[in-house]
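TODO from last week: model ABC transporter substrate-binding protein.
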Amino acid sequence: MMRRPSVLIALCASLAFAAVAHAEPLPQRWVSAGGALSEWIAALGGQARLVGVDTTSQHPESLKALPSVGYQRQLSAEGILSLRPDVLVGTEEMGPPPVLAQVKQAGVRVELFSSKADLAAVDENLKHLGTLLGAERQAGILASEYRQRVAALQAAIAQAKTQQKAPGVLLLVGHGGGKPMIAGQDTAGAWLVEQAGGHNLAEHAGYKNVSVESLAGLDPEVLVVSDRALIGEAAVQAMLKENPGLSATRAARDGRIVVLDPTLLVGGLGPRLPEALQSLARAFYPKGNVSLQP
């Protein structure tokens, strides 16, 4: 019985500390080194706080007007610090480590997020961002809606698979049509292909250069082209011109070549993922009723 006052005092002190911690001002000047994170910040109403972004932050279009701090893996401490940020956000892909250490030493808060191609990672990232932005409720709503849309698409794909076998797919990442890298196992590219209902034909791990002869031998039914320098039909034509052996594949002969925005392959899963999956799934199952709507 004699210990109760001390317990109450400790509890009150703990609650007071929590209240003070919660009352700490939210960071107002943000630098984001990750395209998906930048998109989520904008979706949560925090775009006005961004004072700089990396080169993978291409959406929404208005982000391109902000100062660039370089590519997420090759950041410059001087460029970041010149923007006087309160916080630097990025995924575990962000670096190099000495730059992050220098930024921290300068008093800038560094917050890391997951780049995993995983819906659970989206939930965690949104929760984390919601806390930093003071938009916890909106983050919860976005996470719930996101899962519902992807679940509806998965159900539609499952139905389409009852009418058609999953097509063999290869995802090619190129630059101006040059020799492409193929998205192998345990990559964001492979995850996208599989979530959209395709069968990734590449059995190697990671992204790897493969000869055009090997590509022709795999004979994919669908090619997904993601070019870092070109967009749309220009990316497709450059890939075929620079790699003429691709024309021998079923995908090229049947005109089943799909273009994918390369920013979807780095920095985790962003707000545009459901639409991207829907576009891929419709290319994989042209006769199916594949939709994000239940």
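Done. DSSP finds eleven helices and ten strands in the chain.
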